[in-house]
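Case 411 in the screening queue. Each case pairs one protein sequence with one candidate compound; here the compound is PMT. For every case the pipeline is the same: read the inputs, emit a complex structure as tokens, and attach any notable structural observations.

Predict complex for case 411.
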Amino acid sequence: MTDLDPNLAALKGRRVVLGVSGGIAAYKAVEVCRLLVDAGAHVSPILTDDAQRFIGALTFTALASEPAKTSLFGDPTDPIPHTRLGQGAHLVIVAPATAKLIGKVTAGISDDLLTATLLATTAPVLLAPAMHTEMWEHPAVVDNVKTLTERGVTFVGPDAGHLAGGDEGPGRLTTPEAIVRAAAEVLARGHDLAGTRVIVTAGGTREPIDPVRFVGNRSSGKMGHAIADAAARRGAAVTLITTSALAAESSVEIVSVTTAEEMYDAVVSRFAEQDAVVMAAAVADFRPKVIAGQKIKKHDGPPEIVLEPTPDILATLGERKEHQVLVGFAAETEHVRDHAAAKLAAKKVDLMVANDVSAPGSGFEVDTNQAVLLDSNGRAEELPLQSKTDLADAVLDRVRKALAHRGEERS
Ligand code: PMT
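Case 411 output:
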């Protein structure tokens, strides 16, 4: 990564407060500081007392754009540092963010310069958590992360990997590069989905034939997970209803399901409180009418499997929608626009993302996708083959516009 990296352009000339709280990963914040400065940001470091047990303020002072600060008090040239830093910041990052720091921010406690600055800012906040797995998975921390996400705070990481003391698991600070990239994304996009609730579905449903066999499809969940992650980075409170075991951004609430029926129940029961639903899942259209209680024996010969339709989740939402923006995906192998337009009308969705799943590099399992966006006003927009992450942001740009339009109509 260099200062010429176009993905980091949003950092150039922006004032970034880099908070460092007290964990062993604090030494990695030095690299975050250097990368931010390289990308052209004006970096003001703040270290907590605990951070200084792991790393010296002088190291940050040597690399950053202004001397590192460690206290609310004692500098006659800077009598109110938390308001100067908080009000002047375009972005506040805390890396590493410990369980204690996350808890204090959630509770609104301001007992040192970093937490006071976090209360004194209206800039977007990016937290990079680092702690032991047991702490990261503790209900108190899980609740705090959820609350902060709903308030519009963005989380990046943590990753799974080696932890202090030889332990292993989720809780490791994500890489400095990932933190700086997330910072650039927050600044580039702003927090344009903050305050919105979004359901995303992902993966292919499995419809059981017997206890060991199922009717399924090739969906990996990559497309849906990319949308959930992008929406979370843009500040939405995201519920991801998925059949996939892929990871997701830490702030995303994951609901694991297997069958179309389970996905139906999970989506429909949460629908009323959502602002938008994006159905990227490949939901089976048919399921075996009868599920054998025991494994069907080979020596009994090929079974005759009678199929019945599954509930159509998207069509149900189309019938019930009030204020919600509905996005469907159409997986097609021919007459892509026509088939997708027919589904858009039949299921009463606002936006249909039509992908040709037989085209190279597009559709199932791969990391890229090519789509045509069709809207309910008959407009069609052909997008290039691009990463699923970029397609996710393109879809969410349309969701944001539709939400803004709805907001104007209602006011
Ligand atoms: O998961 P990946 O490997 O990344 O692959 C991505 C993808 C190809 C699965 C994704 O891009 C995609 O196209 N998802 C939709 C697949 C699909 O089921 O398409 P469809 O044309 O059969 O259905 C149209 C829409 O109705 C979809 O939004 C689907 O979620 C929804 N549906 C379908 C059937 C059903 N019973 N209920 C539904 O809600």
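Case 411 observations:
- The radius of gyration is 24 Å.
- Residues 203, 219-223, 260, 279-283, 285, 310, 312-314, 328-331, 343, 355, 357, 363-365, 369 surround PMT (CB under 6 Å).
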